């Protein structure tokens, strides 16, 4: 159900004064918590809570024949499933457009940042490589599923280890201590525009009141670097707005990067 016009106007009026309905500032995030190892079957898993929003992500590894155009690269597949238990907006059945979009945003963020070193997933060129399967399951949707899911996936990958393998058969349930080869972790931040103002980490009502959003994937290695952008929403963003958001993203992204790192130690 869309937000009422009265609520929309109230949200916009508050933002003009730099306020929000839950008393946060426009760029202020809700409390973040990360729990690793929530699945005993997956090679890596994590539960993330962003305020009342909760997401579980799992990483599974298998061996497959490589794609013909990348014979010495491992494979990556990302899937999101939105269940009715997370929100009355979700329905059982095949992934809808929202779930597909979320999975593609996270897939692109990982690929463009080269977070997973796919070259190191090659077992035998042209014959056998590791494939990483990432599953995303929202448990409660209280807004900002994109960013919460991205954090859950990155955390699950950082906790992931290879399973044992005999020949070309994976011995599921037998875990090694060898970690999945990773590079600089990408941070995904989504800015929502409501009226003429931008916010981070929206509640469900704020998401429904927004007219545009811009998701940014960036890393903070030796130098900060923006790897991918994803625009959504009915209304366009001006060049000036995009440049302003990108500048803010690097500043705020660094903060959440440090916050995520501190919880993954």
Explain what this protein looks like in three dimensions.
With 265 residues, the chain is an alpha+beta fold. It has one domain: 2-Layer Sandwich (Ribosomal Protein S5, domain 2), CATH 3.30.230. It contains five helices and twelve strands. The strands form three sheets. Strands 1, 2, 3, 4, 5 and 6 form a six-stranded mixed sheet that branches. A hairpin with a 3-residue loop joins strand 5 (122-124) and strand 6 (128-140). The longest helix has 26 residues, at 239-264. The N and C termini lie far apart (40 Å). 37% of the residues are buried. The mean pLDDT is 94.
Task: Give the topology, please.
Blueprint: H1 5-16, E1 32-36, E2 44-50, E3 53-64, E4 75-80, H2 97-113, E5 122-124, E6 128-140, H3 145-159, E7 161-166, E8 169-179, E9 187-194, E10 197-200, H4 204-209, E11 212-220, E12 224-232, H5 239-264
Parallel strand pairs: 4-6
Antiparallel strand pairs: 1-2, 2-3, 3-6, 5-6, 7-8, 9-10, 9-11, 11-12
